[in-house]
Design a protein that fits this description.
Two copies of one chain form a homodimer. Chain A has eight helices and nine strands. Chain A is an alpha/beta fold. The first copy, chain A, folds into two domains: 5-81, Winged helix-like DNA-binding domain superfamily/Winged helix DNA-binding domain (Arc Repressor Mutant, subunit A); 87-199, NAD(P)-binding Rossmann-like Domain (Rossmann fold, 3-Layer(aba) Sandwich). Chains A and B meet through helix 1, helix 5 and helix 8 of A and helix 1, helix 5 and helix 8 of B. The complex binds nicotinamide-adenine-dinucleotide (2 copies). The first copy, chain A, binds a DNA duplex (30 and 30 nucleotides) through helix 3.
DNA sequence: AGGCAATCGTGATGAAAATCGCATAATGGG
DNA sequence: CCCATTATGCGATTTTCATCACGATTGCCT
């Protein structure tokens, strides 16, 4: 199965994710087994050429006049993005945001299972959060090695972020999904994806305060 | 005060936000009133030239051999991004994620105040979430017009997203911070900022499954 | 069967973003 | 008081990303 593996860029990966979501659930009553690049593009507000380029980048070919096989696209994206090989993650910092993430069922559709949550707060340890027992961070390292965890979700306060990261790295974690507004320092073999939610405010505040001035 | 107003691009705005956060809290024991572009760049993992370009874009000038006045940078960014003119927002969908956002105190530092939350769930209406009473969405439109609300935070399930959006638009909302994984259709005078959290998974899953193959 | 219309693939083009290189300015030490 | 040092500012360059343009392919219709 000739899926090309030419180091996909971040934006391509994100668009592939969007294609996947659209095809696997997005289009309501659309029984057609085939889908055109224009249809995807319209729904997602992307240029059709872009869609074709992206699909081409993972080795998918469409047929003139017909389009692409929707199932084939889904299957290919699942394989390329790795949704087919479920991976387990630990979540550190079972606070407000951590709880929301743990409660979010849809992640499992993308292969992610949050298998344990850790916290330092004595009032939380031992109790259930989103159906899972919160554990003491003292047991974090051993849990990671014991269960061969590769991904950590970081939702602690900013102050604890780097310290926790160092422990995660020492325990052999391979990737971190960082929700704290900090740049984490990690060795080059550890991959960090930052999800800096509040950056959105820069754009929103800017637009709100300049709307009148800038005309639109 | 010569703050240039040349339509800043999204990435510039986001970096300005990061500079602001770094300067206003980030650097711990660093009493120097002056800061160099290299110092910012190091802390934030950005190219120093980029920092200078960004600061130049909002009319800030540094001094050779000295750098920039940290306070002046903060002040300028506050003005440009509009943190100094606090704005009020409504949150629609007081679920897990909505609760986390409402509980997040730091937003007020950037001028954002979530003044009310709305939901359709009878078990939530009337109760407190993060210290604020949840209201029925029936009262949404009137609340928006009555309090002159310009921004809405959208954290409903996907199915409700477009319907809620239409009502927000009809009520005269000017901007939407959208946390649902959907493309919202809005008239051109309404600004939408998407915060598609789960897109991060595309990159994470990809790296986790290809780490061994691709050699980092 | 043959032309028509829709759709794809891809090289060329253009726009945006990041980075480089170097002249210039300010500072502090000798 | 001058010079070496350390920053800046900005034009030039490179890289990345998105869009356009067009030839090729395929199914559909008559
Ligand atoms: N809540 C939001 O909407 C939001 C938005 C943007 C960014 N963030 C960021 O996400 C992070 C978490 O935010 P939150 O609102 O959930 O905060 P929170 O205070 O509700 O949760 C933090 C949790 O981390 C735990 N914790 C503290 N130190 C720890 C440690 N050393 N090891 C493990 N756990 C520890 C705390 O006990 C608490 O349960 C913060 O860094 C915040 O800046 C949150
Ligand atoms: N929780 C996460 O970590 C996470 C991550 C990524 C994306 N999201 C997205 O954020 C959104 C909210 O997620 P959540 O986990 O908080 O879900 P949730 O089910 O916990 O909360 C949704 C809330 O919206 C309310 N609601 C439903 N219909 C409504 C309507 N028409 N008007 C007003 N309120 C309505 C529900 O009563 C509920 O309280 C979803 O679209 C989800 O896809 C969440």
């Amino acid at each position: 199965m000739g899926l090309r593996v030419a180091r996909l860029r971040r934006l391509v990966l994100e668009r592939l994710m969007r294609y996947y979501r659209f095809l696997s659930e997005g289009r309501g009553r659309r029984p057609a087994p085939t889908v055109t690049s224009a249809e995807i593009a319209d729904a997602l507000d992307i240029d059709p050429t872009q869609v074709r380029k992206d699909l081409g980048a993972i080795g998918l070919l469409g047929m003139g006049r017909v389009g692409f096989d929707a199932c084939e696209i889904c299957r290919a994206i699942r394989i390329v993005l790795g949704f087919d090989q479920p991976y387990h993650a630990v979540l550190v910092g079972a606070g407000h945001l951590g709880t929301a993430l743990m409660a979010y069922a849809r992640f499992s559709q993308y292969g992610l299972n949050v298998s344990a949550a850790f916290d330092t707060d004595r009032r939380k340890i031992g109790h259930l959060v989103a159906g899972r027992r919160v554990r003491s961070t003292r047991t974090l390292a051993s849990y990671i090695t014991r269960h061969d965890i590769r991904l950590a979700i970081l939702t602690t306060p900013v102050e604890a972020a780097q310290k926790v990261t160092d422990r995660l790295v020492a325990a052999g974690i391979e990737a971190i999904w960082n929700f704290t507004p900090t740049r984490l320092t990690v060795p080059p073999n550890v991959f960090v994806r930052n999800e800096h939610i509040s950056l959105g405010l820069s754009e929103l505040a800017y637009h709100l305060t300049h709307l009148d001035v800038t005309r639109r």
